[in-house]
Amino acid sequence: MRAAVIVVWRPKHFPEWQGRSRPGGEVVPRVLSYDKAAAPYVGIHLASLLPRHWDVQLVHEMVREVDVDMDVDVVFLSTMDYAAPHARWLAQQFHARGVRVIVGGLFPTLRPEYFEGSVDAIVVGEAEPVLPRLVQDLERGRLEPVYKSATTADLALLPPPRWDLVETDFTMTMAYEATRGCPFTCSFCVLSAIRDPYRRRPIANIVRDITAVPSGWSWVQRKYVTFWDNNLGADRQYFRELCEAMVPLKRFWATETSFDTLTPESARLMGRAGCRFVYVGLESLADESLSGANKRHNKVKEFRQRIRYLHDNGVVVMSLFLLGLDGDSAPYLRDLPDLIDDIGVDVPVFSLPVPIDHTPFRKDLESSDRLLSGDLCGGMDGVHLLFRPRRVSPDELEWALYDCMQRTYSRRRVARRIFRAFRDGLFCGLTSAGANLDYRRHQTWLARAGRARLAARGAWPESWPASRETALASHRERHLAHVPHEAQAGEQAQGVVEEV
User: From 80, 212, 265, 395, which residue has the greatest number of CB atoms within 10 Å?
Assistant: First the structure.
């Protein structure tokens, strides 16, 4: 059996994108049409569940175009909501050639009906419990339309990832998985809609996978580990044991954890174990917004001190900030870059909240008649506004998003964050410099593309509810025409990051 495992992706701002070499793809700036920072853990793990006698290839659209004419018998598509239209288009291209298509992931789990008629089978829930039966049916030529697991996966049974299939073009190293799930139910998070229990892998298996990476990989790819978990530190005892196991491996590593796990003890242990980069879900610096999002474990008054715990142990801190939660006012959005500077986040990134299906956030928007009408999948990328904010106008919120990106990644602010990190150690400074310079390019180009789209579209209509077409208005005819080619970057890219 010849199989392709495809991790579906598309660049933000461009819902009609079907690939770099296809019509419209040539006008997307290169900095947005490639994303080499996230290695395809989902793909290599899914491939490890397939029979070893199969001929399997892995395609991650962040770095490689999908060849819809590839010589395969079956393709497995893994997709999230913002890339679902593109995933369905890919499925239709393969299906038209007689290639069997199976789709799975978070979005197909929440909205399996979206892919009906375009694929041969839909996996609802985690793949591990149903894949043996699906593979057997596939080899017998009698696929069922839906495979839904009655239970969650036993993480102790996960096989080693298929490292041999990975393209090694990533600037970050391969991702690993130690836990699944999260004990919290933040209203906007997809995990509040998929309430699987928090689970842990045996630490011995994690060590096995880390030490099994190919010797031919670069030093960075072998020595830097990224745990792709939602909340690695949620179980304090397990986290301590994992950190202790990482010490003799002499690896540098990054992870994601919740704010409440950051204590002097945990920060010291992380630093000693080689942790050098942590993503912490702060989400907002407005107490009212955090409370409304059921994120009460985040205490704004404690942010600076707990981030200091990490800095004191040589750990760089990244955080996402959501603009447009119910407690966000115009003065707050205006002051946000300064507030972020004050608490000491090293690598801030910005997004609009995404109304994911079946989440409390989406249900509240629907009940208050604040959600756009129509199919919203094309705009679920964090840069398209899909709802009416409570305390600011839609136009104010959209312009505030791009203003925060531009001001936060001005030369002066970037330099200040990098120099501050060097005070916490050479490696901390180098890590901050690499991340800030990379995100400076990405966030400022997102701001350029967003401002061009807003200028071409014009103001939101006064009537409400508005439609999907308002948010995604005329990308191909107007938005794409206003986005500069990367060949023009030079002075234009420089000018966008200068503060007024």
Answer: 80
Q: How far apart are CA 122 and CA 105, in angstroms?
A: 9
213-to-51, 175, 219, 424 alpha-carbon distances in Å: 20, 11, 11, 30
Burial class (CB in 10 A: 0-12, 13-18, 19+), 422: middle
The string of pLDDT tens digits covering residues 325-353 is: 999 999 999 999 999 999 999 999 999 99
Whether 83 and 8 have beta carbons less than 8 Å apart is answered as yes
391-418 burial: b if 16+ Cβ within 10 Å, else e: bbebebbbbbbbbbbbbbbbeebbeebb
Which H or E element spans position 319?
strand 316-322
Token pair recorded at residue 204: 């011995």
pLDDT at 171 over 70: no
Q: Report residue 474 as tokens.
A: 């005329």
Residues 195-234 pLDDT 10s: 899 999 999 999 999 999 888 888 888 898 999 899 999 9
Q: In whole angstroms, what is the distance from residue 353 CA to residue 386 CA?
A: 9
Interatomic CA distance for residues 279 and 264, integer angstroms: 17
Interval 270-296 mean pLDDT: 95
Could you tell me which residues come within 8 angstroms of residue 439 by beta carbon, excluding any fewer than 6 positions away? 347, 349, 409
Cα–Cα distance, 225 to 429 (Å, whole number): 18
Q: Which residues pair with 322 in a beta bridge?
A: 351
Model confidence at 376, pLDDT cuts 50, 70, 90, reads confident
CA distances from 102 to 58, 78, 91, 120, 266 (A): 15, 9, 8, 6, 42
- Residues across the chain: 500
Q: Give the C-alpha separation, 3 to 1, whole Å.
A: 6
* Gap between the Cα atoms of 331 and 342, Å rounded: 16
Distance CA 494, CA 146 (A): 50
Report which DSSP code applies to 372.
P
Domain boundaries, the chain: 2-148
Nearest one of 405, 414, 406 to 433, comparing CA atoms:
414
The C-alpha angle with vertex 98 and arms to 114 and 68, in degrees rounded to 5, equals 75
CA pair distance 424, 10, nearest whole angstrom: 36
8-state DSSP, 370: -
Distances (CA, A) of 81 to 32, 219, 381: 18, 35, 8
CATH number corresponding to 2-148: 3.40.50
User: What is the rounded CA–CA span in Å between residue 237 and residue 426?
Assistant: 30
- What confidence tens digit (pLDDT) does each residue in 45-80 have? 999 999 999 999 999 898 888 999 999 999 999 998
- Give the end-to-end CA distance of the chain in Å, rounded to a whole number: 59
Cα 331 to Cα 335: distance, rounded to the nearest angstrom: 6
Interhelix angle for 203-210 vs 236-246, to 10°? 30
> What span, in angstroms and rounded, lies between the C-alpha atoms of 316 and 417?
10
The reported pLDDT for the residue numbered 468 is: 65
